[in-house]
Amino acid sequence: MTTRLYRRLPFRLLAQTLTPVSTRPYHLTSSLLSTDPQPSPQKHNFQAETRQLLDIVAKSLYSEREVFLRELVSNAADALEKLRYTQLKGEEVDDPTATLHVECSLSESLNSITIEDNGIGMTREELIANLGTIARSGSKEFIKTAGDSGGDASNIIGQFGVGFYSAFMVGAHVTVLTRSAKPGSTGYVWNSNGEDGYDIQEAAGLPRGTRIVIQLKDDALEFVKKDRVREVLRKHSNFVGYPIYLDGVQVNTIEPLWTRKPSDIPDEEHAELYQSLSGRKDTPMYTMQFSVETPVSIKCVLYVPRFMPQLDISNLTNFGISLYCKKVMVQAQSPKLLPEWLMFLHGVVDSEDIPLNLSRELLQESVVISKIKSVITGKMISYLNRQAKRDPAKYEEFYREFGRFLRIGIVTTESQTEKEDLAKLLRFESSKEEKGTLVSLDTYIARAPEGQKQVYYLSAPSRDMAMESPYYETLAENDLEVLFTYNKEDDVVLFKLENYKDRKLCTAEAANVKPVDKPVEPGQEKLEKQEGGRLATWFRDALGRENVKEVKMSDRQHSQPAVVTVENLTTLRRYLEMAPPEQKEASYKYLLHNSVVLELNPSHPIIKQLSTLRESNPEVAALVAAQLFDNALMNADLVHDPRRMVGRINQILKAVTDVKQ
After folding, report:
1. Cβ neighbours of 111 (radius 10 Å)
2. How many Å apart are CA 563 and CA 607, to the nearest integer?
3. pLDDT number for residue 558
């Protein structure tokens, strides 16, 4: 009888198939092993579409074969959940007090892996419906769609549930032993090699639940190694809501915290989950946990690290959050769930609304994923704003570490609303604060004089250089606050932002602010208007009209002899930085000719003396004019190659020393 019952099961698997692997031992009854006549196995042929679909599943859909284990464990967890629900409805089941669990066992001698659950089990009809026909009525549609896609079925998943058949990616032969939880149910054995159909036969003495025995292919023997299987289980199924045992030892010991109330979770448990997800040894700086039902149902826990090791914005493969469905991982560190500027986060998002791939891995672009991304982005911006108000010192610590990501967000997002939401999180040093103290744009606006419609900012390498800038002078005289930006990223971000709460973000260089009137001291009289006009014309000719757009007299400031003004100065700086080396010189000259305006201070001694020098010593006057121009360009951070000034300065020094001799 035994030979007849398992005629399609390889002989070397008989020992494992008949040996229980559950942590709840059971014993086969004598009726299974007796020689009494038993019904012969019933042979069933796969439909042509089903056989074709098996080929697709085994060869095309899964990019990594290890996911077969995730699929089978997920199915086992579903079976346990169905049994629990059946009991909640008050329906009778066999062995109602048994502890629900999933058990995996390995046999290197038999080259096999077994996955067993003590869940709802299957009747004969359910066995045929669930394993004999893939996706049941949807199989023909699946085959047609797969054909229409040119054989690449990875983009047409969603409604076709064939997780069980992933076993044939690694298995040369698959045996399923199952008995329904309904009292008095008969057990059955299902056998198939995935090619010649399958057969089903009754089997006495089976416990409630389902056991799947996979005889591994020769190229899949890694899945009889305990370390490898433990790694896969913890990677994909670590948060399944039921115990998972590997050869009797539980492997999923970390609880899915996102399913619990935030107030019930101590910091130590969050630290353990964070370390598990990130592979780091520190604790998170911030922890945000939330759940929403609209516009999409998700449960989420997110962690902000304390520091960003080896920051490389272009390569964030070790960061991101993992996507789960019902506590089963769909994709680790999914790039689709976060905008680029939030890729420093670690965490989990769990949603029952996601459209699953057949392999749960080749995730499709979808409206649901876009909604999840939008919800997470909005929640994180709001959370960081709350933290900034609650503990400004801690937020400044975060900003110094991750501020660059916020700047990337402003530059890359197309939504002006999101730009302004992110702008609330920006921090800068201010002329009204001590060195090292950071302020927000909201703070600036709140204390600005009534009627001021601009937010002034100045880009410089350091605070000292910013306060010595000629562009700061007039703003300081008028007691106007100026934000200091010390890296070019800030300059670009504020230029890209343009406006914030109906205030124009204005560079100090472009500020149209009149200097404070001061009494004219002896020797500080201005050049006469006509003489100033003649000097400006001479100045432009001396520089070369191809090198400057305009030269004019201006009362813009008092201390400097000359400054340059440029419309869209940030754009000009960026353009020069990005120009290819072989084009940089030509680009520089083009932009000087078309964009740069030189403003001369008619009250400054150098300018007044230059008016006389151009007549008495035009050669030296031309050298001084060129140097004044370069000095002004340097103050605007627009000098292309400062080395070219050295020779000219030496000539000026020689002229000065010659006069003294």
Report:
1. 20
2. 12
3. 72
Residue at token pair 């592979």: 279
| Token pair belonging to 641 | 């190659």
Provide CB contacts within 8 A for 253, sequence distance 6+.
Answer: none
Give the whole-angstrom CA distance, residue 560 versus residue 603. 10
For CA atoms 476, 480, 486, 490, the dihedral sign is negative
> Is residue 292's pLDDT more than 70?
yes
Q: What is the pLDDT of residues 439-474, one digit of tens each?
A: 999 999 999 999 999 999 998 889 999 998 888 988
Phi-psi region at 395: left, alpha or beta (left = phi > 0; alpha = psi -120 to 50): alpha
Greater confidence (563 vs 29) lies with: 563
Instruction: Render the burial of 497-530: b for 16+ CB within 10 Å, e for the rest.
Output: beebeebebbbbbbbebeeeeeeeeeeeebbeee
Residue type present at position 250 = Q
pLDDT tens, position by position, 90-100 = 999 999 999 99
pLDDT at 4: 32
Residue range 66-86: average pLDDT? 89
For residue 476, the tally of other CB atoms under 10 A from its CB is 15
Do residues 511 and 454 make contact, with C-beta atoms less than 8 angstroms apart? yes
Chain segment 365-420, per-residue pLDDT in tens = 578 888 999 999 999 999 999 999 999 999 999 999 999 999 999 999 888 889 99
CA dist 432 and 479 (Å) reads 9
Separation CA 445–CA 501 (nearest Å): 9
pLDDT at res. 639: 79
Yes or no: say if 303 and 347 are a contact pair by the CB < 8 Å rule: yes
Count of beta carbons in the 10 Å neighbourhood of residue 183 = 12
pLDDT of residue 315: 54
What is the pTM assigned to this prediction?
Answer: 0.70
Asked if residues 167 and 174 have their Cβ atoms less than 8 Å apart, the reply is: yes
Alpha-carbon span 399 to 412, nearest angstrom = 18
| Contact indicator for 347, 154 with CB cutoff of 8 Å | no
Give the percent of the chain with pLDDT over 90: 45
CA-CA distances (angstroms) from residue 130 to 53, 101, 133, 186, 190?
15, 21, 6, 17, 11
Instruction: Assign 3-state DSSP to the chain and report helix, strand, coil percentages, each to 5.
Output: 45, 20, 35
Q: How many CB atoms within 10 Å of residue 260?
A: 14
Paired tokens of 206: 């089976």
Query: Does a cis peptide bond (omega within 30 degrees of 0) precede residue 295?
Result: yes
Q: What is the DSSP letter of 261?
A: -
